[in-house]
Amino acid sequence: MLDRLGDVPLAVFTAAHDIVLWNDLWATVSGDPGRWTGLEANLVWRHFTQGHDGVEWDDTHQEDFSSDLVAGLRSALGRYPADRRLAELVARLRRASPEFERRWHGGRIAEHRTGRKVVHTPVGPVEIDCDVLSVPGSDLRIVVYTAVPGSEDAAKLDLLRVTGLQEFVTPGR
What we know:
By secondary structure, this protein is α+β, with helices and mostly antiparallel strands. Helices cover 39% and strands 20% of the residues. The protein is built from six helices and six strands. The protein has a six-stranded antiparallel β-sheet with strand order 2-1-6-5-4-3. β4 (114-121) and β5 (124-134) form a beta hairpin. α2 (43-49) packs across α3 and α4 packs across α5 (98-104). The termini are far apart.
């Protein structure tokens, strides 16, 4: 599937929100997960402890996304109560992030499904839709970014697909 959907940024995450597979366009748009180690490869950890990686959400979507991440992790812990690694991740997040701790006490259980955001890329800001697909019979999630067909944002994604992870040089720097 990764090969067939190479024209859109796509990544696969576990129930704990660890990134396990991604295509080149995902790495170009979201940062190269191949360079991340340990907890850096966990979406929830990155979101609550390292900022938003050049992603802009409006206030409503930011609130929803943050809540959905915590609720999804709570759901995973409910399905896998004996998973020590997952329990340790939650414990570390609760210590490291007051925002995560506050949301954890909310008790909500849910999964993130869709949202719209702006990502800052080497070719400028790109407004994208983020859809989360479930893999039947597993706890894997496929996250796909798309832009409105024919839009300037779709053209920017096409340019990023062609240029990939090349270094962009800004004149005067």
